[in-house]
Amino acid sequence: MLRIRSNLLCRRSLTVLKPAGATHFLHTTSSAAKNESGPDNAEAMERSTIADLLSGNATARNSAEYVVSRLDDLVNWGRKSSIWPVSFGLACCAVEMMHFAGSRYDCERMGMVYRASPRQGDVMIVAGTLTNKMAPAMRRIYDQMPEPRYVVSMGSCANGGGYYHYSYAVVRGCNRIVPVDIYVPGYPPTAEALLFGLMQLQKKIKGNKTLLLKVRK
Question: Single GO molecular-function term (predicted)?
């Protein structure tokens, strides 16, 4: 009887003390680990999510800029291949401009078609001496042109007054009235010079990034 009771007491003590001690020990270590590593894990997770969001936004922004840049290239290709000049001949340089529009140089093969109305043109070719009396009319015609619009100054008189630079009635350069994109030197310049100037204007139109700049703003 004594042996049976002692065995029962030992078994009860083992079953009571061992699980209680084990569970208490596990509970204390897990809570301590949670308390020590909880803030670090949360901060690391927050940093990783912020980094993922930033990388995702950068990827989306780069993709959008790539698409818009390709659209810019397509639009610029159409614009540079279909330049419609507005003839604004003022003096002898206008004769070379007419020569450029003739059959020998055939500006239409490059997509250039002269328009009589400024509302249908996108390039103004100022050929000749600009006087003070003609300056308001030129500015009015320029304002009637749709955007984007460009100005080609043809000849020394249009560039800076030329031979009549010191005359009281002459504007010393059409850039004082309208913004000029291309200057064609000469007195008067040849039709080949005007052709080269318009080819330079095509290069300038090709490099425009109007839509991309709007997206980046």
Answer: NADH dehydrogenase (ubiquinone) activity
